[in-house]
Design goal:
By secondary structure, the chain is α/β, with parallel strands linked by helices. The protein has 26 helices and 24 strands. The chain is elongated, with a radius of gyration of 42 Å. It catalyses: Hydrolysis of proteins in presence of ATP.
């Protein structure tokens, strides 16, 4: 090669990236198979230019400038070159990417006076002598190299190349341009190497001593075993330990190294213990728990979206929107899997009142995916160790609920239902923190159970949560989950569920045949309306089970067929307990139908108001919460404003405003039941307006909505449940906030919308116009 270019630096030359540092004094063979590397060296040959070898193809990166002495073409498109290093260099700028071309210049070292170099070289020689004594493979010729070479930088490069330093340290030394600093750093690295070798030698000595001790112990054990055999003594634990070892070896290919080491360690400890000791019992319990973890057992990840739809439709009547959301969730998950992408969807959380089928939906999902289902009840969970597991130092320690769930499922990828996640409490530690780790895809692949003392991979587990009230779920945990709301059932939906699922299931549980018992449609509707008061069907199932039990007695007494009708229903059940009463058809002053949401569905609450001689005070009864008390005061103030502005006419005339002459008493019946919530404002305002204007309120009108001081009607929650309650009570017209009408009406069942006149309102004037009898 023509080396004239070496004098022309800085210059644009090809760059070749290498895994290891090449030092300037080296002549080494380099094998290449990448297309871009072969193009780079060919360009260097064609242009008679130098070649720059470096570990990073970036600006300001240091490397070695050199030349290609020889090129040999090898089979399969590979190339071998013989490279000679000339000088350290540095990339000033990248000019091209294919092949990588860069402006490269020589690195001029900062040399120091020989007087300063000499003591550093003497120190270096001392440490090299020490290193060569500790490490027989370290070259001893370096002392001669130091004595015979006047270039300190050359000395550093030669010694550094033989030290086998980590790449980061080698590069740190390589790029240093201050000769004094290079020598100091090299001495420092050699000292580290010396300390490392000393430590290794000490450890090796200790290991040898331990091996000798272990051999001695093994020999003594063998002798003890022979003595026991001679005396006719047997150890039952030995057979069990042998079984543990065999089972562990079978599971080894499926488990992580930390799990294998921990279980093997405990088996080895058990083999050295007296079988009757308390510690042996504790250790044996641990081994049996640990070996029950189904390391090798995974359910097949097969998914058919049509099968999921069919299963959900077969197991559940109605619930159109929740079922759609479930299918969409798993459809997106399957699509990501087929395309080799990671699915980052949040954990599903079914939210709704008790008995609406939240856990049942999870069960249907597990059946469709052909996976085992485990339910972990979190209600009232106080101790974080119940989830994480107890450390084995505690008496009665055992794995946490998560680990036990996987063991009980006998699969590493089951469906785990975290039931009642909204009812977790804090007492010892923070269970929420553990659940955050469990539900986080970035962390749950290494979930550490404190009892097992090794990591469990929860990344394949499908977690599904259930909750009644999402507002009580801690915000960070709520952020990890996708809420799917499962609302109340309409009477017609309950009727269909009872006919299709509950009655056949309870007949089977009570060993009754279809020919032996029947429940008429009229009787079933009566049960739904008068004997249950719930959003779901759990209590309805209990009532049907009660009928089945009584029917079973009648069959045993000789009856061939039991028929439950509206007439004989009282023979099977006591007097009606619940039911939303139908509205009073008589219009009254100061009595308004309000709509309320309860944990078991909607309800119709009458709000009553009367006025009596006084000084304009407001009295509230009915065990109202702070929000409802505020609503009452806002409503009273608003009606005062309407009277002052003559938007509400009053019959009584006097100099003093009428509201100063009377006290107002507002009462919400069923005073023993606490009531609160921002949805009774317009109801209270209508009742107050009725007593002051002395106009009756339409008895077939119900309403829900909050009110502001300026008279605007604000949106509310629980619209579906409230409208169902109005439908049951045979209300004709319902007033709801305009915003709820625009966004929430799609969730309401068609039979309810068709049976009610739903009127959206924006202002209190509209409410009074619809509610008051003219």
């Amino acid at each position: 090669m023509n080396l004239e270019n070496y004098e022309k630096l800085p210059a644009e030359i090809p760059v070749l990236k290498q895994k290891d540092l090449i030092y300037p004094f080296m002549i080494i063979p380099i094998f290449l198979d990448k297309k871009e590397d072969i193009i780079a060296i060919q360009k260097a040959i064609n242009d008679h230019s130098l070649l720059f070898l470096t570990i990073k193809e970036e600006k300001d990166t240091f490397g070695t400038i050199g030349t290609i002495i020889r090129k040999v073409t090898l089979p399969e498109g590979r190339v071998k070159i013989l490279f000679q290093g000339l000088e350290r260099g540095k990339i000033l700028d990248i000019t091209d990417k294919n092949p990588t071309m860069a402006i490269v210049d020589k690195v001029t070292p900062i040399n120091i006076d020989a007087k300063e170099i000499k003591p550093l070289l003497e120190t270096l020689k001392e440490h090299i002598i020490t290193l060569s004594e500790l490490n027989p493979f370290f070259p001893k010729d370096f002392i001669k190299i130091i004595d015979s070479n006047s270039d300190a930088n050359r000395i550093v490069d030669i010694i550094a190349s033989s030290l086998k330093l980590p790449l980061e340290k080698s590069y740190e030394l390589f790029k240093e341009i201050d000769t004094k600093e290079r020598l100091i750093k090299l001495i420092h690295f050699i000292l580290e190497e010396i300390e490392s070798i000393k430590l290794k030698n000490e450890l090796s000595q200790k290991v040898m001593e331990q091996v000798q001790e272990a051999n001695r112990e093994h020999l003594l054990k063998q002798q003890l075993k022979l003595i026991q055999q001679e005396l006719g003594m047997t150890n039952e634990l030995e057979e069990e330990i042998k079984e543990y070892r065999e089972k562990l070896e079978k599971l080894k290919p499926c488990m992580r190294e930390d799990a294998y080491k921990e279980i093997k360690k405990q088996i080895d400890r058990l083999s050295r213990m007296h079988p009757d000791s308390a510690e042996a019992t504790t250790t044996q319990n641990y081994i049996e728990w640990a070996l029950e973890v189904p390391f090798c057992n995974y359910a097949k990840e097969e998914f058919d979206i049509n099968e999921l739809k069919e299963r959900l439709d077969k197991d559940h009547y109605g619930l159109k929107k929740p079922k759609e959301r479930i299918v969409e969730y798993f459809g997106a998950k399957e699509l990501a899997k087929k395309r080799g992408e990671e699915f980052s969807g949040a954990t599903l959380c079914f939210v709704g009142p008790p008995g609406v089928g939240k856990t049942s939906l999870a069960n249907s999902i597990a059946k469709a995916l052909d996976k085992n289902l485990v339910r972990i009840a979190l209600g009232g969970l106080e101790d974080v160790n119940e989830l994480r597991g107890h450390r084995r130092t505690y008496i009665g320690a055992m794995p946490g609920r998560i680990a036990q769930g996987i063991i009980n499922a006998k699969q590493m990828n089951p469906v785990i239902v975290l039931d009642e996640i909204d009812k977790i409490s804090r007492y010892r530690g923070d269970p929420t923190a553990v659940l955050l780790e469990v539900l986080d895809p970035e962390q749950n692949s290494h979930f550490r159970d404190l009892y097992l003392n090794f990591d469990l991979d929860l990344s394949k587990v499908l977690f599904i949560a259930t909750a009644n009230d999402p507002s009580t779920i801690p915000a960070p945990l709520r952020d990890r989950m996708e809420m799917i709301f499962v609302g109340s059932y309409t009477p017609q939906e309950k009727f269909e569920i009872a006919k299709r699922y509950l009655i056949p299931q309870e007949m089977k549980k009570h060993s009754l045949k279809k020919s032996e018992i029947s429940i008429t449609d009229a009787a079933l509707r009566e049960i739904i309306d008068k004997y249950t008061k719930e959003a779901g069907v759990r209590n309805l199932r209990r009532i049907i089970a009660k009928i089945m039990r009584k029917a079973a007695i009648k069959i045993l007494e000789g009856e061939k067929q039991v028929k439950v009708t509206l007439k004989n229903l009282k023979e099977f059940l006591e007097k009606p307990l619940f039911g939303i009463e139908e509205i009073d058809k008589k219009d009254k002053i100061g009595v308004v139908n309000g709509l309320a949401w309860t944990p078991v569905g909607g309800d119709v609450l009458k709000v009553e108001a009367v006025k009596y001689k006084g000084k304009g005070q407001v009295i509230l009864t009915g065990q109202l919460g702070d929000v409802m008390k505020e609503s009452a005061h806002i409503a009273f103030t608003l009606i005062k404003v309407l009277i002052d502005n003559k938007k509400l006419k009053v019959k009584e005339r006097s100099k003093e405003p009428i509201y100063y002459k009377y006290n107002v008493h507002i009462h919400v019946p069923e005073g023993a039941i606490p009531k609160d919530g921002p949805s009774a404002g317009i109801t209270m305002a209508t009742a107050i307006a009725s007593i002051f204007s002395e106009k009756k309120v339409h008895s077939d009108v119900a309403m829900t909505g909050e009110i502001t001081l300026s008279g605007d009607v604000l949106p509310i929650g629980g619209l579906k449940e409230k409208l169902i309650a109005a439908y049951k009570a045979k209300i004709k017209k319902v007033l709801i906030p305009q915003k709820n009408y625009e966004k929430d009406l799609d969730d309401v069942p068609n039979e309810v919308k068709e049976g009610l006149e739903i009127v959206p309102v924006k202002r209190i004037e509209e409410v009074l116009d619809h509610a008051l009898v003219k």
